[in-house]
Amino acid sequence: MDMKEALERLESFKSLGEDWDSYGGKPISTAAIETAKKMLEGFFVCPLSDGTVEISFGNEEWVLKIDEAGDVNIHVPPIVS
Fold first, then answer.
1. Which residues does residue 55 pair with via DSSP β-bridges, in sequence order?
2. Which residues touch 13 (CB under 8 Å, ≥6 apart)?
């Protein structure tokens, strides 16, 4: 799935109503969709000089750093309501 398809798929979630999964699923919130879109639009992958890989999302607000052992460290900004 490319970026355009991913963003279109997220946009399609707005049409999911009550019980969309036949198990009582709630409609997907606009805030959840917009945050997911923001994360995808700022998606970036880069190698780091310490032999690790960094994946960042949302204009580098959310960061996954994969270390030498393959373990993932996650940095998430504080949630402000």
1. 45, 64
2. 28, 33
Measured CA to CA, the distance from residue 9 to residue 33 in angstroms comes to: 10
Q: How far apart are CA 36 and CA 10, in angstroms?
A: 8
Beta strand spans in 17-67 (E): 44-47, 53-57, 62-66
Query: pLDDT exceeding 90 applies to what percent of the chain?
Result: 51
CA nearest 45: which of 21, 20, 63? 63
- Give the position of tokens 């996650």: 74
Single-letter residue type at 32:
A
Span 39-59, pLDDT tens digits? 888 788 999 999 999 998 876
Helix (H, G, I), strand (E, B) or coil at 27: coil
The model's pTM: 0.67
- Only one residue has tokens 């398809």, namely 5
